[in-house]
Structures are given as structure tokens and as C-alpha cells.
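SAMPLE LOG
Freezer: B-3
Tube label: C17
Construct: single chain, 416 aa
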Amino acid sequence: MAATDRWYPTVRLAMALAEAGCSVEAVCPSNHPVNNTRAVRRTHNYNGLVPLLSFGRAIDTTNPDIVIPSDDLATQHLHDLYSRERDRGNSGSRVCRLIERSLGTAESFEVVYARTAFMQLAEEEGVRVPETKVVTNKSDLLDWITRMGFPIVLKADGTSGGDGVKVVNTVDEAERAFRKLQAPPLLARAVKRALLDQDLTLLGPSLFRRGFVVNAQAFVAGNETTSTIACWNGTVLASLHFEVLEKVSSTGHATAVRLIEHPEMSAAAEKIARRLKLSGMYGLDFMLESQTGNSYLIEINPRTTQVGHLALGLGRDLPAALYAAITGESLQPAPKVTENDTIALFPQEWKRDPASPLLSSGYHDVPWGEPALVNACVGTLQNQGAQTSRRAVPPQFHTAPSSLSGALFKVRTGEK
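STRUCTURE (predicted):
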């Protein structure tokens, strides 16, 4: 697994892959939470100052069958590593073959980051999408507003996690959002990212004043849904479709979801995977229109998502399906983790609202089998301030950090 940040879902997927039969190693930053699980055999240091060197060394050391990126920047590094090798005349090298085996054909690399181009490709495949267009200046923006009306959605290419998305309702809001999304990164932010996270990705655009491509997208009134798919050579092996119940913010990631079946979403995922010849794990975001129930594809995430670890039965166990495709062995899905369709993601939903009723009415996805991981996660959140203070923590977590692992086990088993 390849990670450039300390995102908690990376650990959950690593655990699920190990459960499916994989031998898992990770290239990741220091102090990553994968170090708190027994599922990862070894970690390799990711240095954001020399990211391609970090990824290349990890690949050379492990000689893996597949690399799974867990965030957008990790995917970009793999694309860049492929491009570097290709430009050196090594397009047939082991590294290039591995990256295409892991992610899909290289022809798909650019389009997964270009929002308007991706929407056009999806529309060519007969997938229902909202109208989307690149806006390069204020005149383009005003023309779009005149034609489409409000609200509208503005999205910047090369962003993730909702950071580059704005929903606007007035001309003033639209103009401010456009300027902010299009502008190069602030130098202070770029320097902070470089010093604290050893991530230089913003430094070049900031110093050389390279802005972002901004896209305007028609607003679809309805409910947000999301799909996570495991693919192999353009074929969808397994998929999970969820309705988003709660989010960390209006444009941020989900914290609680409900499992659904939606044939149009399934068909869209199959068409996109086939057209782009995808391999590995990808996420697709949709809107279900309120009045019709039609699904509109609004975005692709060129990486795994935070629900990819969930084993929910045949055709809904992505790690098991991917393991079977890689090894050629028969598919052996893990037992379903729950019969409850509502899933509160841990620690995301608890962090959003420690008193959320979904923590008890839904399946709270706590990794009870890895008490050290839970202990580390709870301790981290408790140290973040008032929103995760002792008073706000659910009763089952009211314990001193030193004894938390045992207490969590007792809560789960019902022991006194």
C-alpha cells in the first residue's frame, strides 16, 4: 500500500487485505497508524521531499504483485513514476508494468484528474452526468451562470477531500469562489506543508504562480451516494454502493453511510472501468436526483476509499475479489461484518458527533480485533481538544489510555 498521509482508512484496508490472504507492506510517512496493526509486515519510509525515490525504493525492495494507493497524491506519485520511466525509454520496465497492472492502462492516467474530460468520457459511454465545463475567466463564469442559473458547483482539478469544491448561490459567491479555486497555493501554506509534512507538491505551483483549472458543474438536487469498486483489466470484480447519511462537512468525506443497491450506479461503474481499462480500487461519487431517483455520476476518485475494507457478502468484498484475481485462486469472501445496512465509520462518525444516534442504531465499524490501533486512535482524538473531550466520549471509551485496550474488549464481550 502507498500512502502520503496518515489517513486512518489506509489501516483498515491493509487489515482487510491481510485477512483476504495478502502479505501487506506499506510505504508511508513516519508514525503512520499502520504501525499499530499486526496486519502490515513491514513499512518503508515515505519522504515527501523525494517522493518518487521513496516509492521506487519501496517497490524495488518488496517486488510486489500490486500497489494500492490510498490517497490522491499517492496515485499521482505512481503516475509520475511511470512517466519518468517512460521518458527514460523504460516503458517496458518492471516498474511500469507493475503500475499499469495495479492501476490500469496508462492512457487513463490523465483523464482521472481532469474533471470535465472525465465527464465527457462518461457521457460518451452513456452514463448520466451533469453538464460540466471548464471556466477560464470571469466571462466564462458569468455565461455559465446566465445559462444554468443557481446553485452551481465549482470544482478545481487536482484537489480531493472536498477542498476544491464550492457550491455557490449568488454571483458574488461564484466570483469569490472562482478566484480562490483558480489561484495558486498561498506561499505560507506551501511552506508549512513542506516543513511539517515534507510535501513539496504545493511549493512549485506557489513559487511559479501556477493556478488550478476550474470546472463549473450543473447542480443536481438530491442525495449523495458513493461507490467503491475493485477492478481487473477493465472488469468490475466487486462493488459497494452507499447512500451518504452524514459527512464531516458539506463538501467533505462521509462519516456514516447506508448500503444500497442501484442498477444504474452499477452499470455506470462497469462502463467506466471498461472504457478506462481500470485495475485496482477506485471510488465513484453520484447524486441521486430527488424527483426521479436517477443517478448522476459527478466524480471519480483514482484510489481506494474509506469503505473499501468492508466485507458485506458475495460481490461486496473488494479485498477478497482482488486477491482472487491476482492469485488465480477461487474467490473466498470473508464473513459479512454485519447485517445492518447502516454503518457508522470509526472514528469518523464519532469524531463528527460523539453523541450521534447512528453509533448505536447502525453498525459501528470499530476494529475490535486490533486494540492497540483503537487505543492509539482514541488517544489521538482525545488529545485534539474540546470536541473529543472526556465528557464527549461515548461511555464505552471512558477509561484511561493505559487500560483502554482491555476495557474495549470487555465492552465488546459484555464482561464486567
